[in-house]
Amino acid sequence: MTQKTLEITRVKSMIGATPMQRKTAKALGLTKRNQTVHKTDSATIRGMISVIAHLVTVAEK
Q1: Range of the domain at 53
Q2: Any alpha helices (H) in 1-61, and if so which ranges?
């Protein structure tokens, strides 16, 4: 059984974001706008995405 992966793309700027949102984006590996990372789908990653949902787009692969 293969695990699902999430394709997370940062689409908005961090200007005006709270320090917690900035740290969450950096922890996910999103340091630049329009940058995409692939992460394994888990509750931890989903929680991090929910913190910065307004800054990113998510696609399941």
Answers
A1: 5-60
A2: 19-27, 43-51
pTM: 0.91
Here the CATH number for the domain that contains residue 31 is: 3.30.1390.20
Residue in 33, 27, 29 with CA at minimum distance from that of residue 55? 33
Give percent of the chain above pLDDT 70: 98
Give the DSSP letter of residue 12.
S
State how far the Cα of 31 lies from the Cα of 46, in Å rounded to an integer. 18
Question: Tokens 């961090």 correspond to what residue?
Answer: 14
State mean pLDDT over 3-14.
96
Q: At residue 4, does pLDDT exceed 60?
A: yes
Distance (Å, whole) CA 17 – CA 19:
7
